[in-house]
Write a structure and sequence with these properties.
Shape: globular
Oligomer: single chain
Helix content: 25-40%
Number of strands: 9
Number of helices: 5
Order of helices and strands: EEHEHEHEEEEHEH
Structural class: alpha/beta
CATH class of the largest domain: Alpha Beta
Largest sheet: 5 strands, mixed
Amino acid sequence: MNRPIATATEDADGVTYIGVDGTPALAVTMARLGAFGKSPEVVVSGINHGYNFGPILHSGTVGAALTGATQGMSGLAVSIGSEDPQYLEVAAEVAVELLAWLRGQPTGTVLNLNVPDVPKAELRGVRSATLAAVNPSRLKAGVAPTGEPIMILRDPDPAQDPDSDEALLAEGYITVTSITGVQALPDTAAADHLARRLP
């Protein structure tokens, strides 16, 4: 990659923002390499507009947190239950509280946090959750206002496994799910198969 992929911008309050022309995982990798200053200890990704529940490992938000785990950091992926959220400050408050706890956990811990987009007083509480099972009917393809194809995750279904993030979100709970990062394990069967067929 021989082109500039990061641009720094300073706002009226003197806060510098750095935009990365790439995926959230690339931004994490660049930060780990010291491209923006001292390498971080924890990756906080989000607040994503829209939930990331169930089989969400393809999500850029969750992917950034998992990438941090593969590079010696812990990660917190944060999502709120609306494409046009009205209560971002509630999700931010919850995330800050969880981040304080996460910093004391073993390196490589990754948490997926989903917060309903409601006033704080309307939250039903916090639940530890499993990832909902794959349910293709919950997904559909769509088109963003800019014309790009997007995947749309429909509203959570309360009929899912009652301990799953999807069902608990449908009931109005904040959900926290611990996600194990990617592990590279040797696959001797695959390697042996390939070795027998190559000269």
